[in-house]
Amino acid sequence: MQAGDEQITAQRRPEMPEDHRTDSPEQQRSDAPEGLTSPQVDEAGTTAGAMLLDSLELEALVLNLDASLNVHARHQFFTWTQGLLQSLIKHELLICALRNGEPMSFYVDAFSTFATEPSLFSEVFRQDTSLVPHLIKAWEDNHYRPVLVDTGSGSFAGSPLARELNRVGASSLVAHGTYDSTGKLASFFVFACQPGTIGPRQAHLVELVVPFLHGSWLRTQINRPVEHSSSKQGGVGLLTMREQEILKWIYLGKSNIEIGAILEISPLTVKNHVQKILRKLNVQNRTQAVGKGLALRILST
Hints:
The protein is α+β, with helices and mostly antiparallel strands. The protein folds into 2 domains: 3-220, 2-Layer Sandwich (Beta-Lactamase); 230-295, Orthogonal Bundle (Arc Repressor Mutant, subunit A), CATH 1.10.10.10. The chain is built from 12 helices and 7 strands. It has helices spanning 25-31, 55-68, 74-81, 118-127, 131-141, 160-167, 200-220, 229-232, 241-251, 256-263, 267-281, 286-295, and strands at 8-10, 36-37, 93-99, 106-111, 147-150, 172-179, 185-193. It has a 7-stranded mixed beta sheet, with helices on both faces. Strand 3 (93-99) and strand 4 (106-111) form a beta hairpin. Helix 4 runs antiparallel to helix 6 (160-167), helix 9 packs across helix 11 (267-281) and helix 10 (256-263) crosses helix 11. It starts with 7 loop residues before the first strand and ends in a 6-residue tail after the last helix.
């Protein structure tokens, strides 16, 4: 495999029915989208590099699938994907796209505790006419199996989405989706990771998780009855203005040092405020604090 051919790597099915094998492997490779390659498959039909999950991974998988069933609102989805799911699939940014009628029209949302302004990536994903269509076509051509992408080099590096991902150091992607009864794209998920952190094993985990990811995210889109105004104001007055400001910067992925520089206070002072925020919100960490802040409408998306 040449260096230039590693831009997109697909997790292909080990075996396909004979009636689908109309072309030789050489013809299939020549017809594939530019940069699309597939891992080698051994004589037993096992994808090279794929391994059985160990006991810790199996436990993490079960815990994540169980947690996904308790997701019914956006803040719960955020808390799950940027908390427990990180123990299984480490990522800097998760982009979720739901097809909105037209083939390339999507409702998009992005989730991260690392990237500044995740909503920026939602807008860029919608507007990207290079990387995003190629990702989706590669996934469809790959019989709806995950695809791996490196946006740091090659023809994709100049696309709007690739530029933003490269800027935050999340240039390695695992992309996978779901489809409806007609075989058309229903939803599409992109895990953006640090370079060198993804491979066949991570792609396999993504393939296992995405159906549950789709179901839990879809539940957050259901139009529910409008809540009473008293519940909407549940977080008002819980945090001081300074604490709300710090929580906002935590939501945008800033560290204590960065927040201190922005607010012109010491990192130690920021740390003290963060500890107070955790106590007042009755949570254990920053990710849970952001999720609780979204739930109580202290933060807005």
